[in-house]
Amino acid sequence: MSETIRRPVLYSAVQPSGTLTLGNYIGALRNFKLLEKDYDCLFCMADLHALTVRQEPAALRRRTAEVAALYIACGLDPEKSIIYAQSHVPQHAELAWILNCFTYMGELSRMTQFKDKSARHADNINAGLFTYPVLMAADILLYQANVVPVGADQKQHLEICRDIANRFNGIYGNVLTVPEPYIAKSAAARIMSLNDPTSKMSKSGEPDSFISMVDDADTIRRKIRRAVTDSDGEIRVDPENKPGVTNLITICAAMRGCTADEVCALLAGKGYGALKDYAAESIIEVLSPIQEEYKRLVADKAYLNDVLKNGAERASGLAMRTLRKVYKKVGLYQL
Ligand code: TYM
């Protein structure tokens, strides 16, 4: 049966390029579950995007299924939402090609992620890294998505996606839905690295710079205990002068579902040791049940395979509708 869309469409994706971090959870995954009840959702494992940096093939394959398991362990329902791998729906690459022809070199050269990644992988500045945002625009526009929940680091990519959609619609009429970003206003949209709190927490960072979503309790305690703070000793929010402490407060607030001020009031007069203990226990409390469910799911390969197969079929049906329209509009010969 072909997929029917009844509600506004939500789209998001994660690259299966490493173990997912607490940053991915706070900036993206935890919001997915909250939004699932109001939208028709697609959650993708962006495996084609992951190829822009060299991957170990067996690890990439394994992580693609692991991210699906994490989505479900975080509470997403694969019967309701479409959970699938990007490479299983060839229309992503097809639309990306068309959109490449509507995207300028100048705008791609301004992308900060491209600049960062080319600096970090100077020996592999490939064309895929450059056109990464175009494939991301194709992901979103294929499903006529209305909202895209992401962390703050993806803001620029969403802006270029909107520009491409508007440009295309300006020429061919209203073909593509222009999506709205859904990015938390608070610092939770950008969780920082534990050992360098001036840069974002990333799955490609040093092992001690991030909490993995599957780290055990002792590892979490150890990593948080080592997190960089400052010598001032006061627990307060001050991203400029106290980025490490501010980051720990942000993490506590996100895990406890309260405000940063409430965290500061609770810990007033206590030292950084107390802040770190509170942060570690808060993370463990949230991640433990997710990890338990995750372990059960990754062991069930047949189930995950079914989820991916079903997801790919449902996504393809929707993607085909947009791609057909686009092909027709741009003048490709229809059989
Ligand atoms: P990726 O895999 O780097 O990250 C997945 C999601 O996690 C968010 N995130 C963070 N949020 C807060 N603090 C952090 N330190 C942090 N690190 C990561 C990201 O903003 C993202 O929401 N290009 C995307 C994947 C993608 C995509 C898409 C997203 C491909 N196609 C279409 C949305 C729509 C990426 O690399 O995410």
Quick summary of this structure?
The longest helix is centred in the C-terminal third of the chain and has 30 residues, at 301-330. The chain is 54% helix and 7% strand. It has helices at 22-36, 47-50, 57-73, 91-100, 105-109, 112-120, 127-142, 155-172, 217-225, 243-256, 260-267, 272-298, 301-330; strands spanning 9-14, 40-45, 82-85, 147-149, 180-182.
Please describe what this structure looks like.
The mean pLDDT is 96. The protein has 13 helices and five strands. It has two domains: 9-188 and 301-330, Rossmann fold, CATH 3.40.50.620; 207-294, Orthogonal Bundle (Tyrosyl-Transfer RNA Synthetase). With 335 residues, the protein is mainly alpha-helical. The strands form two sheets. It has a three-stranded parallel sheet with strand order 1-2-3. Strands 4-5 form a two-stranded parallel sheet. It has helices at 22-36, 47-50, 57-73, 91-100, 105-109, 112-120, 127-142, 155-172, 217-225, 243-256, 260-267, 272-298, 301-330; strands spanning 9-14, 40-45, 82-85, 147-149, 180-182. The chain is 54% helix and 7% strand. The protein starts with 8 loop residues before the first strand and ends in a 5-residue tail after the last helix. The site of tryptophanyl-5'AMP (TYM) has 26 residues, from β1, α1 and α7. Tryptophanyl-5'AMP (TYM) binds next to β1, α1 and α7.
